Structure formats: C-alpha cells, structure tokens
Amino acid sequence: MSEKNREVILSRFVITLLVILALNFFLPRMMPGDPFSTISSDVQGEDVIIMTEEQREYYSHYYGLDLPLHEQFVVYLSNLVHGDLGKSIQYKMPVTDVILLHLPWTILIVLCATVISTIAGVLLGTISARNRRKGSDRLMMTGLIAFAEIPSFLLGLILLLIFCVFFRIFPLAGAVTPFAHYDSILDQARDIAYHAFLPIITLALAQLTGVYLLTRNTLITVSTKDYIRTARAKGLGEHIVWTRHALRNALLPVVTRTGFMIGMLIGGAVLVESVFRYPGIGSTLRTAVVGRDYPLIQGILLVVAVSILLCNLVVDRVYQKLDPRVDE
Amino acid sequence: MAVLEVTDLKCHYITDKSVVKAVDGISFSLEAGEILGIVGESGSGKTTTALGIMRLLDHHASVSGTVLYKGRDLATLPGPEMDRIRWKEIAIVFQNSLEALNPVMTVGQQVIEPILKHDPQAKNAEVRCADLFRLVGLDPSWRESFPHQLSGGMRQRVLLAMALSCDPRILILDEVTSALDAFTRKEVRDLLFDLQKKNGYSLIIISHDLSFVSSLASRLIVLYAGRVVETGPTADIINGPRHPYTRGLVHSTPDIFVYKDLWGIPAESATNDAPEGCPFSGRCTQPIDICRTSVPSLQPCGEEREIACHRGGIATLLKTEGVHFRYPLPGNKTLHAVNNVSMEVCEGEVLAIVGQTGSGKSTLAHVIAGIIRPESGKVQFIDEEVHGGNNGHRFGGIQIVFQDPFSSTSNRFTVLDAVREPLDINRIGTPDERLEMTKDALKWVYLPATDQFLGKYCGELSGGQRQRVALARAMVMRPKLLIADEITSALDVSTAANVLRLLKGLQNRKGFAMIYISHDLSLTLKIADRIAVMDAGKIVEIGNAHEVMLNPCSEHTKRLVGSRIGLCCHDHVHNHHAGEQNPLTGDLNHGR
Questions:
Q1: B99 CB within 8 Å of a chain A CB
Q2: ipTM for the predicted complex
Q3: Chain B residues near residue A234 by CB distance under 8 angstroms
Q4: What does the alpha-carbon distance between residue B155 and residue B151 come to, in Å, rounded to a whole number?
C-alpha cells in the first residue's frame, strides 16, 4: 500500500469517526426526557428517586448539562482527546471503567459465536453445495431457512427454558457464579465457559443460516467457473477441486461477512444478553438508554462504532491477503 | 495404431424446456503422433467434443458413445481412474479466459499442482515448472504472479505450460490462438510443432481459425451443428472443399483468400434442435427435397475423404465441353471467338472470367446463357443441355445481366414494366403475385419498391440505378446461375463499387452461382472464388482466385497480373505481389 493510499484511507476513517461522534452526541439528547427526570422502574434494585427542581439544577450543573449544546459538544470533544469519556450518571463512575467492566464479556461471546457459526456454516454450506439438488441439500436448506426465521431472543428463551429451567444444566443468568472462589485459573475458565455457553450457542445459531446460505450459493456460483473445470481436467480429484479451488474462492465473501458481523454484534448482542442477563456491553447500553445516561450512551456507541470501523479495516486487510486481485 | 478412438459421441445439454444436441454422433480416431484438426464455427460443438472426451461436462449434459483410450473406455471408467488419465495421459489447453486459471493462486502453483498430484514424489517440481515457463517463452519469475497480473497472451502460455506439465500422450488445444496476436500465434504454432516432433504426442487442435489449424494438422474434421460434415487430409480440404459449409469456412478465412473481400456464411448457425433434415440445409446453396427430410450420413468420397451431404458435396451446376464458336468476317475469314472451352461452375460459387477485350468472354457468356448456339460442343446446366435460352424462362435457371444498362433496359419502360417483363412473358404467377415478386426483387437490389419509383421511366434513372434495375430484372426469375457480363464497366468507380458489393452480397445471401465477366483483375479478385483467364477464345488458366493471382502459370496470366498499374505509394507492394510468394499463404504449407 502506497503512502498516499494510506493517507486517503486514514482521512476517510477520521471523517467517518467525526460524523459518528456528532451523531453519538446529539442523538441521545434528542430523546425525550433527561437523566434526572427519568423514572426508571426497569433497573431493579435501584430506588426510584424523584428529584426536586433544585436538585436537578445542581446535578445538571455538576455534569455540565446546563451549558448550551454546542459548548457541551466542545467540552466532550476536548475531553475525548484527553482520553476522558466522562462520568456515568447512573453508575457514578468513569464511563471508561463501566465499559471495561462489560466489554470483555460481549467480546467473548461474540467472538466465540462468530467462530462457531462461521465454521459450522461453511461446513454445512460446502456439504450442501456438493450435494446440490440432492435430498441432503434440500433438507438442510429448507431446515436452516425456517430456523433462521426464529428471532434470536425467542431462540434464547427457548434454550433457556429447556436447559436452565427444565434440565437445570446451565445457569439462568450472569457471566460467573456470584461470590465464587476459584482454586485455579482453569477452574475460573470453566465457570466462565459454563455461563457463556448458552449465549454463545444462541448467537451462533442466529448467525448460522446466513453463513450457510452465503457459502452454499457462492460455492455453487464458483463451481461453474472455468477454473473449476481446469482443476477437474488436471485430475486433481473432487476433494482438492472443492477445497483448494472452489472453497478458497467462495470464502472471500464469507470473510467479509464475518468481519462485519463481529462489528455489528458488539452492539447487536443486546437481545441475547438481556435474555440471559449476561453483563455485556449490549445490556449496559440498554440500561444507559433507559436512564438517559448521556455520557455512558456516548461512550458505548463510540466503542461500538470504533469496533465496527476496526473490523472493516481488518476485513480489508485480510481480504487483500486472500484475494490478490484487490489492488495492493 | 489409434491411441484415441471416439465412436458415436453424443453430448446433449438438457434444460427444462429443450434438449440442445451440442454434439450429435461424432466418430473419429486419432493415430499416435498425429495432428488432427477440428474446425467449425462457434457453437458447432468443438469444445463440447473435447470436454466430452475428458468427461468434463456438467451434470445436465447427457453423454453417450464410447471414447477408447489405449483400449479402455473413458466413458465408463470410475472417477479416480479417470483422474489418473486426466492430464497425465490426456491434457487440454483451455481457451484463454480470465477465469480459466484460479484467480487466487499463483500461476506457478497451478502449473506445479498436477505434477505433484500425478507424481507425489516429484522432487524437482519447482525446477520443472521453471523449465516449462522457459519452454513456452515466459520468464520463470512470472511463476509468482497471479493470473490477473498477466496479459491474455501470457495466460495462454501459462495454460500451455500447465498442459505440458505431465508430459501427456494426447494434447487437446481448444481455441488457443484467439487471445494471441499474430506474432505470438506464429510462435505458439512453431512451438507446438517442435514439441510434437520432439515428444511425439498426438494433438487435437480445435479452432475456428482455419489457417492456424491447417498449418499444423494433417487431417481435418469439419463440424457443423454437432455433426461431422467433412473429413479428409488438410491440404485436400483447403484446396478443394467438398461440402458447401467447408467451402463457406474456407472462403471466410482471410489468410487463404488474401485478396477477396470477406463474406461469411449467411444466416446464423443452426442449433440442430429440429430432428429431421440436414442441419445445414437452411444455409446451403444447393438444397433439394431430401435435405429437408433426412439427415445425411458420413459417406466416403475420394481417397481418405468423407462427406455428409445428400448431394455428394458441392454439385456441378454448369458444364461446358469443347465449345466452339466462330464469327464470320468479311473476306471469308472467321474469328474463332470461343475455341474448345471446357469448364465447370459449381453450385454457389463465383467464377470470374477475365481477359482482354476481344478474348471471347462475352461470346462464351452468350453461349452459356443459350442466347447463341455453339457450333460444336455441349453446354450442360444441371442435367439438361442448354439450347435456345431454355433456362431463362423459368425459376432456378440462368439469367444474364449485360454491360450497358442503357441499352439493356428500354427508356420507354417504367421500372415496374422492366422488372416485371420476364414474369409477364413467361406467364408466371397472378398479376398480384407478379407485383409482389417485382417489389421483392427491387428490395433485394436496395431500390425503393414504392409506387412512385415503380412508375418512373427507366430513362429517368441514373446509370447505377439502371444497372440495379437490370439486376432486379434478372433476380426476379430467381436464377441458379447469374451471368454478370462487365456489369460495372459503364459505371463510375464509386457506383461500380456499390453495385459490385450489392451483387456479391446478393449472391452470398441467395446462394446462387455466378459467372462474373470482367477485364478488371483487381475488381474480380474482390469477389471471385475461382478465376478463369481467357485469351484468344481459349481458357488459358483456371483455378482458385488466390492461386491464379499468386502463382500464375501461363504467360498470359503473368502478363495480366503484371499489367496492373500500381499506385506510386504501392510500388513495392505491387512488385512483391507480382514476384514469388505471399508470406501469409506461403506459411500455409510450411513445415509439413
């Protein structure tokens, strides 16, 4: 990549980021209500506080929300430059800390789910494409498309009912056993995996059909290409023809999709996180929105946006490695 | 001994609605070390044949017939067995396309791939790959490149190197020259020839490029609509095509007919979905009733040649034998205008008769048309003897167009009268039909068929228009043979050029045969398939137009060829042509 190219790409990212920052800042403030007048009954365990006018003014001033909007924006930006995301109104602690507390859980389940759904989807898609128009292909296709129609939260609920309520195999909520003492790191890891299992499976199943269909259809398109015929003519055998020649070409769009999905899921896992009461960034965002916790909303949206941008960047680089036709 | 024997190979593409018989019963054998050419237009089934042999067709193609390779039928071999034969025994050089090579693998990897597959112990695969690259004229450093980084010609070389990687016994080349420029094409040709000499493998060259195929192959198979229409030794087929389709192909090849304008075979290639009839009958110049009802089978015709044609190949339309004609001159002298002329005109061909003024060309034309009776000798048209213009009175006969349009059409006739007159005289059709036929004929010669134009008097027309009216008058009788006697000599160059192209276009479309009489050699070369040179009442030389032009035998022809006035800027070209051999056609027989 030339120096100039790098500059162009970088400047594009900066512009995108600025637009996102502005949206992140203004959109929450356009919602009805403010952090101090919201009566939140959603957040359990917290007392409902109705503030007096004086209190509100005091807190507004304390959090700098009494300034004109544009001044608030300038303050926000200058703080941001110094790495300060502000203070969460609800959590009464720096936004950065809140995010650092919850983001790892989301990343854990999103990454695991993506890996599982991609591997399974590619595998099933390949089997389906190789048996095109045969029974196994038809069955898989109909089944998976029907399956994809189930919304992820419903799927989560069903899994929750089956495995946690009836069979009691998995925990109902949380990311770790509360107040647990671990003898070793291995023990701790086992507990984390135990809690993360169902959310991961739910997310993975929700993504599976997309990957499967993309793999299958791309493979079918690729299998009609001349180079597949060339590979067959060389007597390489069906296995190598399908893997080395067909699949490698068919995986290109799958890689793109996977990258984008990771980015999207960081913020989009909220439904699944809610169902399993998993302390990820998605459910934190929900809490923040309900409480009109402007600094926290901004912070999380920023993290989500940056992670999507990052994933795009990574996808671009990976794609370049995989497809030599993409301009170096 | 034949290494490959294909018997009754059929490849039908089955779609939901129809069955496309891409290959419909092809049989041939390939001898060890032989170079076999398969030619035909696109869609004639050439590539499908190759894929059928290699068993590379999609599932929706149904393939039948046997393909014997060293006594084993490839069609019934189990998959893994077949994979051992592919590339190791029979390799194929695919037509270059951007996607013939895997876009995400380096070309080096793709060349090495089959080497390692067929010989997993191969230690020197890298070295061998580099050698192959050098062999096909590519720098080995290109191995690290991806297909999209190479030019079309380079990719074609990679495909060739890939095909050679396992040193196959049979190499199939599918349309390898279409992506190559003239220099590369020649290089590849020479390379293939040398490699064949060195390694002794058998080659099947598939192409629509007749000159490329014929420069390598010793035997040709001509395909049309998935069937073999003609086979035989290359030189025989190129010099004397028997099937009308083969003739059309040869005539469409610029390297063979260097001077002539190109006229493709009219109409689209048939798709052979109609079960009955000869697939070529719709485009043929000589169809008869049986051609539309039954499919001709391949029959031997002459030495090592076979042809699938109900009429036994291109039929002779007109034949003269020992024709004499003398004009009495004052003082008991006679002028021997036509002296013992024997010649033939085939269906659908353009024969030019060239010669100086007074050499007897027009007299010969008049004899052939039956306007004057020869003193002795015979003129036979189709199967009957010509006498008293008996062929001018009916459809499918002989018509003649004369030199001077001003005297051949009456000033006092309207266009309608002039063109319709032959129908009136011969009482063909009802008045309405005659009018329709007249209008059709005018459309054929690109004249307006409006009432206004039909009502014009011939005297009002320009020379070019009048000659076209004369042509329409001949065409209205739908001749099988049209004699055009100096029809452009009274016209200015531009009008002459227009009329000539019109005439040739009409001939090409309608498929009639034509005798074109002219003293202008340059002009005749543009349209003639064969040329007969006349001098003092005799035909001194007759042959393929390019042969007569490039290698004139008789002194008179040499003089005629040499008498062309070259433009100053063409001087060297002119000298060159008058000299020895043309490099293009000379190349045709090179190396064999």
A1: yes
A2: 0.77
A3: 86-87, 113-114, 117, 162
A4: 6
Q: What does the buried/exposed string (b/e) look like for B213-238 if buried means 16 or more CB atoms within 10 Å of the residue's CB?
A: bbbbbbbbbbbbbbbbbbbbbbebbb
Instruction: Kindly report the nearest CA distance between residue A228 and chain B, in angstroms.
Output: 8
Q: Which amino acid is at B88?
A: K
pTM for the predicted model, two decimal places: 0.77
Class of domain B2-89+168-307: alpha beta
**Which of A205, A215, A302 is closest to A257 using CA atoms?**
A215
| Inter-chain residue contact B103 with A324, CB threshold 8 Å | yes
Q: Distance, in angstroms, between A6 CA and closest chain B CA?
A: 22
Q: Do domains B2-89+168-307 and B315-397+478-554 have the same CATH topology?
A: yes
Q: CA triplet B63, B67, B73: central angle to 5 degrees? A: 105
Count of beta carbons in the 10 Å neighbourhood of residue B522:
11
C-alpha closest to that of B362 among B385, B341, B344: B341
B56 part of contact set with chain A, CB < 8 Å: yes
Task: Please state which CATH class domain B315-397+478-554 belongs to.
Answer: alpha beta
CATH topology of domain A101-322: MetI-like fold (1.10.3720)
Which residues does chain B have within 8 Å of residue A245's beta carbon, measured at their own beta carbons? 102, 105
Interface of A to B at Cβ within 8 Å reads 224-227, 229-238, 240, 244-245, 248-249, 252, 322-325
On whether any CB of chain A is under 8 Å from the CB of B105, the answer is yes
Q: A235–B86: do the CB atoms touch at under 8 Å?
A: yes
Asked if A235 and B94 come within 8 Å (Cβ–Cβ), the reply is: no
Q: Do A235 and B51 touch (CB under 8 A)?
A: no
Residues in chain A: 328
Query: B197: how many CB neighbours lie within 10 A of its CB?
Result: 10
Phi, psi of B171 (to 5 degrees): -120, 125
**In A118-272, at which residue ranges do the beta strands (DSSP E only) sit?**
none
Residues of chain B positioned with their CB less than 8 A from the CB of A236: 83, 113-114, 117
Of A224, A274, A293, give the one whose Cα is nearest residue A28. A293
Single-letter amino acid, residue B533: V
d(CA A190, CA A192): 5
Domain boundaries, chain A: 3-81, 101-322
How many other CB atoms are found less than 10 A from the CB of residue B285? 24
Shortest alpha-carbon distance between residue B104 and chain A (Å)? 6
For residue B149, give the DSSP letter.
G
Which of B88, B102, B146 has the CB atom closest to A227's CB atom?
B102
Nearest-CB residue to A235 (from B88, B104, B146): B88
Euclidean distance between CA atoms B482 and A296, whole angstroms: 94
Tokens of B323: 């024709």
Q: Look at A235 and B146 and tell me if their CB atoms are within 8 Å.
A: no
CB-based contact, B77 to chain A, within 8 Å: no
Per-residue pLDDT of chain A (328 residues; tens, 9 = 90+): 567 778 888 888 889 888 988 998 888 888 877 777 655 445 555 555 667 778 778 878 887 778 888 888 888 888 888 888 888 888 888 999 999 999 999 999 999 999 999 999 999 999 999 998 888 899 999 999 998 888 888 888 998 899 888 888 888 778 787 877 888 888 888 888 888 999 999 999 989 999 999 999 999 999 989 999 999 999 898 899 998 899 989 999 999 888 888 888 887 788 888 888 888 888 888 888 888 888 899 999 998 888 888 888 888 888 888 888 886 5
**Residue A86 φ then ψ, to 5°:** 95, -175
- Cβ neighbours for B553, distance < 8 A, ≥ 6 positions apart: B541
CB contact under 8 Å between B56 and A233, yes or no, is yes
> Phi and psi dihedrals of B482, rounded to 5?
-115, 130
What residue ranges in chain A does DSSP mark as E strands?
Answer: none
- Domain ranges in chain B are 2-89+168-307, 315-397+478-554, 412-476
Q: Do B100 and A323 touch (CB under 8 A)?
A: no
